[in-house]
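Dear colleagues,

I hope this message finds you well. In preparation for our joint manuscript, I am sending the Glutamate/aspartate import permease protein GltK (Rhizobium chutanense) sequence together with its predicted structure, so that both groups work from identical material. I would be grateful if you could confirm receipt.
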Amino acid sequence: MNYTLDFTPVIDGLPSLLLGCLGTFLLAICGMLLAIVIGIGGVALRDSAFKPARWLVIAFVELIRNTPFLVQIFFIYFALPLAGIRLDPTPTAIIALGINGGAYAIEIIRGGVQSIAKGQMEAGLALGLHKAQVFRLIILKPALRAIYPSLTSQFVLLTLTTSIASAISAYELTSVSQRIESESFRSFEVYFTVTLFYFVISWVMMRLFALFSARYFKYPVK
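The corresponding structure tokens are as follows:
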């Protein structure tokens, strides 16, 4: 087999690939922020005294965790217009990523919350704090510290999951690489380069998470 490597199309398309990396970062960050909101809100509802809310959160988590992300993003993009809700590819991708990541974040954060001793919650209530204040000031930060490695690993995975957004033509790295490959037919060169880009993106995300941890979560346990 005589195959000559030619990275010329990749070099010519480098500006577009770098913009695609930026698009991937933006999708990932927006999806993570939405996932955190869904995760924290879901935990509060999951442990509430209102049974319908608890069952709704349980059903949401089971539905999202047991269906493929591709099906979820297709449903939002193709099925919701039947109900009169039309979204562009990028907002669709952000919402789908946030919902998918939020379902996993609910269970991860809930595990951290359950690791907090009940005595700390009772002490907060005894000091006259409301339940919302106890949750925010006494439970949430130690819980986030406990589950931070698991949560950030899930968010790195969510960053890589942004590649599936190319299925609805959202602007990100994989969609850009598909266009370059379809124009040049240099599949190996394009996807080899994209693999390296995704590795760098994941490494940068892990470093950012490590810096955040060092800034906000490094304090004595006792």
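For the figure legend, we might mention the following. Residues 14-46 form the longest helix (33 residues). DSSP finds nine helices and no strands in the chain.

With kind regards,
E.M.
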